[in-house]
Amino acid sequence: MGVPAQKGAFPRHIGRTKGGLNSKLHAVYDNQGRPVRLHLTAGQVSDFRGADVLLADLPDETEEVIGDRGYDSNQIRLSLAERNITACIPPKKNRKSKPPYDWHLYKKRHLIENMFAKLKDWRRVATRYDRCAHTFMSAIHIAASFIFYLKE
């Protein structure tokens, strides 16, 4: 007979923000807009934490990374440059020295926005009924598998 888990043994990754309780889903996707790797953090956690986890395990054939302003940091840009990966991240508004980025390449970011929109079509993912992060991530993986891989 199994022993029940201790209270608080599984993280919830639910954080308090201005809008209430929420979570952030970070994603690495391929050139067709299909998710390759997903990572969940609490709502108040900086985007840099999610980026550190995902960028450490990028596939070897990665040529470019497209991110939003939340991922704009010298550390991320430097780590990508060391691996010969083009960083297409617009600078934050308050940044003193604004590094250039390819606006035409950044337009491809709509693929990931479409991916998140398709995931949010699943009510369970959009409203986050699950308290535990591992259960919520399981629902996200099932939805992503069905939407992007099984329907083809």
- Total strand segments: 5
Could you name the ranges where pLDDT drops below 50 across 5 or more consecutive residues?
none
Chain-averaged pLDDT: 87
* Helix residue percentage: 25-40%
Strand content: 15-25%
Spatial shape: globular
Estimated radius of gyration: 17 Å
Distance between the termini: 42 Å
Compressed to H and E, one letter per element, the order equals EEEHEHEHHHH
User: What structural class results from the helix and strand content?
Assistant: alpha+beta
Placed side by side, the strands forming the largest sheet appear as: 1-2-3
* Largest sheet report: 3 strands, antiparallel
- How many H/I helices? 6
Chain-wise SSE layout:
Elements (H helix, E strand, L loop, with lengths): L14 E3 L2 E10 L5 E8 L4 H10 L7 E3 L7 H9 L3 E3 L14 H4 L3 H11 L2 H5 L5 H18 L2
Parallel strand pairs: 4-5
Antiparallel strand pairs: 1-2, 2-3
Notes on the structure:
The chain is α+β, with helices and mostly antiparallel strands and 152 residues long. It has six helices and five strands. The strands form two sheets. A three-stranded antiparallel beta sheet has the order 1-2-3, sandwiched between helices. Strands 4-5 form a two-stranded parallel sheet. Strand 4, helix 2 and strand 5 form a beta-alpha-beta unit. The termini are far apart. The model has no long low-confidence stretch (mean pLDDT 87).
Give short descriptive properties of this protein.
single chain; about 150 residues; alpha+beta; three-stranded antiparallel β-sheet; 5 strands; about 40% helix; globular
